[in-house]
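Q: Hi! First time doing this. I have a protein sequence and I read that you can turn it into a structure. Is that right? Here it is:
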Amino acid sequence: MFHRVFVYLFVGWTGLAVVGPAAYSDPFFPPGLRIGLEPPAGMKLSARFPGFEDTEHSVVMAILDLPGSAYRELEVAAFSKTQRDLQDAKREIFPFETSIGILVTGIGQKNGINVHRWSLLAMGTSSVPNLTMLINVEVPESALSIYSDAVIRKALASVTFRPAPIQEQLSLMPFKFRDLAGFEVMQVSPTGSVILAEGKLDSDEPQPFMIVSVERKGPAEAADRALFARDLLASAPVRDLTLQSAESMRINSSPGHEIRAQGKGPRGDTVSLVQWLRFGPGGFLRIIGVSPADKWDQAFGRFRTVRDGIDMR
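A: Yes, that's right. Below is the predicted 3D structure, encoded as structure tokens:
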């Protein structure tokens, strides 16, 4: 996965304009990220990926904000004896502003030229939990006199964390909410999903919650939507599902599909569930509402209010 993440960061991006100031005197957080740092002079905030770059010298500093569960696999890859595409690989414990991480350095090849690479891996802290940080830096041999090892290490040493910037993260979603119906935003995923709940996740009493996400593709033909929706229901966060009803409908003037079901929640309690799919060009909006069965009548009305108040950007 270490290699896959590297490829994702440095090969998969399309070219966009670069924005942002040329120098930072304090740690700067790219929009939506929990990770910030003081980038070297000459590097600007990138609009192509989360992080910073110097397009004139082909230097990139990409920041990946991942869930805590991603750490173990990346750690194993970092200490692997075989580092693919990386010569003279070295690993060390690296302290930075907020915590301590693992720094992997080495030299690779890109378009036939030597490229110096630094990868800093670390976990979140007690104040910023459920975080795996991966920062990848690439400096061509020709730019090493400007972005030396000392310069890059100074920037990495300034890394700091902050709690999830919910409003910033919401502004990056491909959809927006007009009415949360009393729910609170509990988590925003960079993959395009939002979890809404009562704000009482530590309560002993089960509470209604929602998951809203945008997904690509979907059924090519309208006749396939019902089966597609039923198959998708298997990935809902409820077990032992029993289907109660299913029907096609219009949702905000778009073709959609509704399924209602009952099942068991994480604690074995009986819960009711609704899944709405709203189909559009190239993908679909998925809305899941889950509630304890004894709170379903009130929760369902709120779920619909949230559903009808979602606009695509």
